[in-house]
Amino acid sequence: MPLSGVGVSPGHAAGPRVLVAADLPEPASSPAPADLGAEAGRIGQAAASVAAALSDRARSVSGDARSVLETTAAMAADPALTASAEKLVLERSLPAPRAVWEAAGEFMAALRAAGGYLAERARDVADVRDRIVAALLGVAPPGVPDLTSPSVLVARDLAPADTAGLDPDLVLALVTEEGGPTSHTAILARALGIPAVVACAGVLELDGPGLAVDGSAGTVAASDGTVRAPARTSRPAWDGVGRLADGHRVKLLANVGSAADAAAAAAAGAEGIGLFRTEFCYLSAAAEPTEAEQRAAYAAVLSPFAGKPVVVRTLDAGSDKPLAFLPMGEEPNPALGVRGLRVAFDRPELLDRQLRAIAAAAGDSGVELSVMAPMVATAAEAAWFAARARAAGIPRVGVMIEIPAAALCAGSILAEVDFVSLGTNDLAQYVFAADRQLGAVAALNDPHQPALLRLVEMVAAAGAASGKPVGVCGEAAADPALAPVLVGLGVTSLSMNAVALAGVGAALAEVDLAACQAEARCPRP
């Protein structure tokens, strides 16, 4: 019997299996270095060498792969990680590899606690951690081995930088035991045209010299190792303008969460920012960042998009996204607790300070600013947020639709704000009662699910009735096969990770609005 996972990139392929090396073993915490200063100094040198190697690889490729490698290189060069590891060497006498391991672990824990997109970035940090540790130990980093013949890659999980460097002529298909449909691996596999299945439990133990992969059905079976390459279709290059074949405009925007993300998005041709996640400014802060600190941090992210539209999401924290300066107490069900905008109801001054910093940063960077609030459930909540945002001098205000109640009352909510943006990742999680980080229920978080699309249709209809735009900023927007359906349902903009922009833009350029609407009308069970 074949194994079942979640198909994230369509196509059929078969061939010999090649296992990707596991992560590095945990480094020892002893013996203590004889010269703590010299040992701490090794960390910056190792990080710089890793960043340089990734940058060199980025210059040898283009498009999606280049954007991912540049982002990973920027993460390796992040002085916050280096400084944290150096501090552990000096204060706890740890060897440099162990210090990097522990410092990265703290960053990964904070990202996982933040949930959603930020939780997915924990895999990126683990990849950077392993590369720096390997450089310190003088060993080869784990990852994809050099392939000499066409093969099916099998891994517990894949780092984005590894996926970005794959040769589609040698990699027949990808299968991972973990991951989900919103991962970087899924996005890059689609961009490269490689059939892929994620969240495939048991694939590492599957017997046989080869694997047969169906990326459309999400199945993986043992095979005799005979090579069957996927059929590859060419796609015209994207010209950087989001539009259909008949000229109908659909803005293609980027989701960003750091200055490195913004730089990669600008390089990839994003027409603006559809979702700027501001949590990065708070995650490692022991105290609330000052307005001046927030202003400078936000401006660094916004500056590549001077003169272009950007949508900044206010702080999405609380409950399962703990912050050191926001004691929230224990909750029996954090996913349904005080998070997002709900944090601000008892702390409006926290929101007001952030709104003022966002408005000032927009002025510094020259962007066309909009703000939106996360986790809005009712029209009254939307009105409360809109009043505070406008009082801070922000003229264009919206909210995210990620709670089913908000989708069902989208008309009333749109009466209070200027636009809405569907966060399909969280919306699917709540609609299907399925944790988006849990591989066992990953199939329910597939954005092609009919119930999710019906909610999108309902919100888009409310937007059309009110004459106000409706965007999608969840990973549903990053799927070239789904993008025409979303446009046909009435969505006016799509925002995604930078690596997905070219594929979505090219897919939309091949169809007209009538075809999108016809596809959206296809019967769904």
UniProtKB/TrEMBL annotation:
GO function term, MF aspect, one: metal ion binding
Gene Ontology BP terms: phosphoenolpyruvate-dependent sugar phosphotransferase system
Binding positions (Mg(2+)): 402, 426
Residues the record lists as binding phosphoenolpyruvate: 277, 313, 425-426, 436
Locations listed in the record: Cytoplasm
Domain Phosphotransferase system enzyme I N-terminal: 5-121
Catalytic activity: L-histidyl-[protein] + phosphoenolpyruvate = N(pros)-phospho-L-histidyl-[protein] + pyruvate
Documented EC number(s): 2.7.3.9
Domain of life: Bacteria
Domain PEP-utilising enzyme mobile: 149-218
Gene3D superfamilies: Phosphoenolpyruvate-binding domains (3.20.20.60), Phosphohistidine domain (3.50.30.10), PtsI, HPr-binding domain (1.10.274.10)
EC category: transferase
InterPro entries in the cross-refs: PEP-util_enz_mobile_dom, PEP-utilizing_PTS_enzyme, PEP_util_AS, PEP_util_C, PEP_util_CS, Phosphohistidine_dom_sf, PTS_EI, PTS_EI-like
GO cellular component, one term: cytoplasm
Coiled-coil residue spans: none
Active site: 184, 473
Keywords linked to the UniProt accession: Cytoplasm, Kinase, Magnesium, Metal-binding, Phosphotransferase system, Pyruvate, Sugar transport, Transferase, Transport
Cofactor list: Mg(2+)
Domain PEP-utilising enzyme C-terminal: from-to ranges: 243-511
Family: Belongs to the PEP-utilizing enzyme family.
Function: General (non sugar-specific) component of the phosphoenolpyruvate-dependent sugar phosphotransferase system (sugar PTS). This major carbohydrate active-transport system catalyzes the phosphorylation of incoming sugar substrates concomitantly with their translocation across the cell membrane. Enzyme I transfers the phosphoryl group from phosphoenolpyruvate (PEP) to the phosphoryl carrier protein (HPr).
Protein's recorded name: Phosphoenolpyruvate-protein phosphotransferase
Upper lineage: Bacteria, Bacillati, Actinomycetota, Actinomycetes, Pseudonocardiales
